[in-house]
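Quick one:
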Amino acid sequence: MHENDEIMERAILVGVERPGDTWSVESSLDELQRLVDTVGAETVGRTTQKIDAPNPRTFIGSGKAQEVAEMCRAYAADVVVFDDELTPSQQANLERVVDKSVKVIDRTALILDIFALHATTREGRLQVRLAQNQYLYPRLRGMWAHLASNRMGGGVGSRFGEGESQLEVDRRMVRKRISSIKRELAHLDDVRGVQRDSRYRSGTFKIALAGYTNAGKSSLINRLTGSDVLSYDKLFATLDATTRKLRLPEGREVTVTDTIGFIRKLPTTLVESFKSTLDEINGADLILHVIDGSSKELSYQIETVEEVLGQIGAERIERLTVFNKCDLIESQDAFQRLKGTHPEAAIVSAVTGEGIDELIERIAQVASSRDDYIEALVPYDRGDLVALAHKRCHIVSEEHTESGTQITLYAPPDCAHLFKGFAL
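Output:
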């Protein structure tokens, strides 16, 4: 599907418009189309339906379901993608309406497919497999229907027996798989926890990037730290938490962690599966909420990210709003409006470097806001403290005297006591 000589799957998108929706159905389908593009399929048609509540049998009603089936035949579609999560019975009923050769999936299955494509580390792959199996388990019924139709004899009762026993075997297998993956993830989480604890004990100021998918978090961490984190103009290009060091202008080192991007209607199973990765946000001293400043849906994207941060208990952590991609903002008027409505935010471009120096200054201000101001005379036999000052503190002045190193600095609370013993 990703090679030029292979035939791309053809997709029909289906969205619904309900009272009280914050996003327009067209905007939501635009995002769904980007998700379809990310997995390498081609969108050949889209349709929408106004409903007050989902139809319990087909989600969109029988008449609309028939219309979708006709669209599949007209466009020779291979897959129908619903913008909302379908129940197992709704999915099964829709598959009966459309042609047997056409797959019916929902937004959750599509996102899981993208995650499976982009997971690179062992932990990332396990997290995706866990979410996939949790999604699959309630949908196992009906997957063995071919056994009933192929059995000899037929008649009353032929739809049970062998197929049903196979269904139970399959359910047990999925339950075991879920338990096994959870055990492996728990072990990896312990390892990651040791790494996190080591960073916490070091007292290093910790920054986490959070934001809507494709807001440019990976590009921003590359620009800030000079690293080479994988960065593509695709949804969910990176899934694994990546931590890099950033040296602030005053010499202090801080850590910056890039995390998984969020998206509207992010499946609950994914939030649960990626808990260990999202814990990197919870352990931060400062969250940079990275937003695509050129997006027409930025206000809704902000709401989505804030909602997920609330779900994982990170709403208490200090926040700095960063509008990225300012080089793509359509006009100077739009740029000024953004500055006017969000005067507290940093506006940057990770691609051109515009505003990056100002952002680093803002980070330095937050990092030093809890520091103690100390003037100390450090004996020459305590060179370790001078080295610590250069690594962890903001040094105002430093002078070598006969008695030792006279140093004026701002020290973080966890190491300030080491210098107070030599305070002038």
